[in-house]
Amino acid sequence: MRKTKLRLTLEQRAQGCCEYCHYPQKVGGGVLHIEHIIPRSKGGSDALDNLALSCPRCNGHKGEKTEGYDSPTGQPSPLFNPRKDNWSEHFRHNRQTGLIEGLTPIGRVTVQALQLNEPAAVIMRLLLIGHDLL
Questions:
Q1: pTM for this structure?
Q2: CA distance 39 to 131
């Protein structure tokens, strides 16, 4: 498969990983999706600053979502935006449990909306951690 300049740019920027859960593209052998952070249906563009690399799992769960409700506060919060937000300010990998923990309302809403800790994802994350791939 010949990669387009856009895909190469996105892969370099994301260091070959899903920008939401950090799943490495090289492990799955598949291709990460080019995802619209703000969906076109909600006025998002095809501009580079509105595009992110996303694994099929995260992209499928995100769909057209851009916000959710933070359970502890009951307040609305936007989902994590890889172009504006710093991942480590909103999340952390718990290397013992394999969970991605939301540290802020943005992090917690994103963990819930994208179902980052569904069992299959946690098992895969633990395998990646155990082999020093995450």
A1: 0.92
A2: 35
